[in-house]
Amino acid sequence: MLIGKKTHQLINEQIGHEFFAMSSYYAIAAYFDSEGLKIFADYYYKQADEEKVHGQKMIKFLSDAGADVKIPAIPAPKAVYSTGVEAAQAALTHEEKVTELICNIVDAARGEKDKISEQFMQWFVAEQLEEVSSANDVLALLKKAGPGKEFMVQQFLKHD
Ligand SMILES: [Fe+2]
Ligand SMILES: [Fe+2]
């Protein structure tokens, strides 16, 4: 195995967090879809797909490094939302949490002098800046719009 023991364990756990983020985004997308807010829904469907890719990258990395892949149990995501702001806030809170977890993996890799994992995780560090920033933007947009104006502001959603 090319990577540190603790780092290996944290990356396995992180695969679960990425897949939990995926299903959380699907739940949020479904909420917007059910409200007829298709542009918001598409935005979150796309976020969900990205989280799947994040989990896949980690699976491939562990496999390449000769480390066992142990995907943990994934909890059910929150299924019911009552406002767009609530859903967008949940997305931001989760991205902030994931950022902390990603940084913890970098710390563990440094602690174990595991340069391979440290280098691998840098992509995720940069990605988290983008994800937190865009989650913030969506929340700010919905808050500024106010209740009942979600439909009007959808067109201002930035797609990357
Ligand atoms: Fe992610
Ligand atoms: Fe994310």
Structural summary, described in words:
With 160 residues, the chain is mostly helical. It has a single domain (5-74, 82-156), classed as Ferritin (Up-down Bundle). Helices cover 75% and strands 0% of the residues. The chain has five helices and no strands. It has helices at residues 5-34, 38-64, 84-111, 115-145, 150-153. α1 runs antiparallel to α2 (38-64). The chain is elongated, with a radius of gyration of 17 Å. It starts with a helix and ends in a 7-residue tail after the last helix. Bound molecules: fe (ii) ion (2 copies).
Oligomer: single chain
Determine and state the CATH class: Mainly Alpha
For this structure, the CATH topology is Ferritin
Ligand roster: fe (ii) ion
Q: So how many helices?
A: 5
Number of domains: 1
Secondary-structure-based class equals: mainly alpha
Runs in which pLDDT lies below 50 for 5 or more consecutive residues are: none
Q: Any descriptors?
A:
single chain, 160 residues, mainly alpha, Ferritin, 5 helices, 0% strand, binds fe (ii) ion
How is the topology of this model organized?
Layout: H1 5-34, H2 38-64, H3 84-111, H4 115-145, H5 150-153
Helix pairs in contact: 1-2, 1-3, 3-4
One fe (ii) ion binds near residues 21, 51, 95, 98 and 131.
Give the structure's gist in a few sentences.
The protein is mainly α and 160 residues long. It contains five helices and no strands.
